[in-house]
């Protein structure tokens, strides 16, 4: 079965420091991976995706993610966190062998403190 | 494009009443998903349509839940009768090809009292 795991319910980081939000996946075949962000009372917004190619993917708002096939990970990163980055972050995988469904992780709450 | 449009944004109803949530996907998208988000269960996939046909409804919790997609530009999620445990935020999302992301609506916050 396809799945996505976000091992941290919450990540706390000081403004200006680098941040990492972790994600591991389990899929059959090549993974299609995504990161989304959700601000309070809003829908999920797409940040970035990995389909193929360079393992380092750059996305919106200065975020990037590194695909690591051997570790089956797709961690979200940002070199310098902003208070406005505080939100709920979801990792997702698209299951190409099961009607192209999206599977989402449980979400990680990022708190960036001034 | 205005994005995925959901209505209403908020719905408060009494237990036992019928509730209908609506979704207009992005024009040209041929896949549509309904999700439910709660604190306890996170984001759950309820049902998935492709070309207006329900492909997988294994996530629909009970027979009280039903979803339709009569055409490419409209879908409904109905709960009849509603129960307090159905209180959640319901999201609709759409996409159009194999390797693109899904686009989400703003959600409908349902409260059943």
Give a quick summary of the entry.
Chain A has 114 residues and is mostly beta strands. Chain A is 0% helix and 54% strand.
Largest interface: A-B, 24 and 23 residues
Class based on secondary structure composition and strand pairing of chain A: mainly beta
How large, in whole angstroms, is the Cα Rg of chain A?
14 Å
Q: Kindly report the oligomeric state of this protein.
A: heterodimer
Radius of gyration of chain B: 13 Å
Query: What's the count of strands of chain A?
Result: 12
> Count the strands of chain B?
11
Question: SSE string of chain B, helix = H, strand = E?
Answer: EEEEEEEEEEE
Mean pLDDT of chain A: 92
Strand percent estimate of chain A:
over 45%
Q: How large a portion of the residues of chain B is in β-strands, by DSSP E?
A: over 45%
Main sheet properties of chain B: 7 strands, mixed
Helix fraction bin of chain B? under 10%
Q: Termini of chain A, distance in Å?
A: 41 Å
Helix content of chain A: under 10%
Polypeptide structure, described:
The complex is a heterodimer of chains A (114) and B (113). In chain A, 0% of the residues lie in helices and 54% in strands. Chain A is mainly beta and 114 residues long. In chain A, strands 2, 5, 6, 10, 11 and 12 form a six-stranded mixed β-sheet that branches. Chain A has a four-stranded antiparallel β-sheet with strand order 3-9-8-7, with no helix packed on it. In chain A, strands 1-4 form a two-stranded antiparallel sheet. In chain A, strand 5 (32-38) and strand 6 (44-50) form a beta hairpin. Chain B has strands spanning 5-7, 10-13, 19-24, 31-38, 42-50, 53-56, 65-71, 74-79, 88-95, 103-104, 108-112. The radius of gyration of chain B is 13 Å and the shape is globular. With 113 residues, chain B is mainly β. The interface between A and B is medium-sized, with 24 and 23 residues.
């Amino acid at each position: 079965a396809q799945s996505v795991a976000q091992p941290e319910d919450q990540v706390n980081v000081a403004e200006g420091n680098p941040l990492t939000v972790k994600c591991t996946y389990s899929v059959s075949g090549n993974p299609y991976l995504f990161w989304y962000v959700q601000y309070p009372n809003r829908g999920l917004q797409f940040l970035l995706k990995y389909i193929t190619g360079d393992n380092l993917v750059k996305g919106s708002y200065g975020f990037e993610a590194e695909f690591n096939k051997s570790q089956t990970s797709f961690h979200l990163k940002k070199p310098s966190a902003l208070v406005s980055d505080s939100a709920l972050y979801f990792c997702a995988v698209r299951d190409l062998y099961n009607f192209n469904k999206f599977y989402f992780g449980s979400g990680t709450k990022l708190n960036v403190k001034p | 494009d205005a994005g995925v449009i959901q209505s209403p944004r908020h719905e408060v109803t009494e237990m036992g009443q019928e509730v209908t949530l609506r979704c207009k996907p992005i024009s040209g998208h041929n896949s549509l998903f309904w999700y439910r988000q709660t604190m306890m269960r996170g984001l759950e996939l309820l049902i998935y349509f492709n070309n207006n046909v329900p492909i997988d409804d294994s996530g629909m919790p009970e027979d009280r839940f039903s979803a339709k997609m009569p055409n490419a530009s409209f879908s409904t999620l109905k709960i009849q009768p509603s129960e307090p445990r159905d209180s959640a935020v319901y999201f609709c999302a759409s996409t159009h090809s194999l390797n693109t992301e899904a686009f989400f609506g703003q959600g409908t916050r349902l409260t059943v009292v």
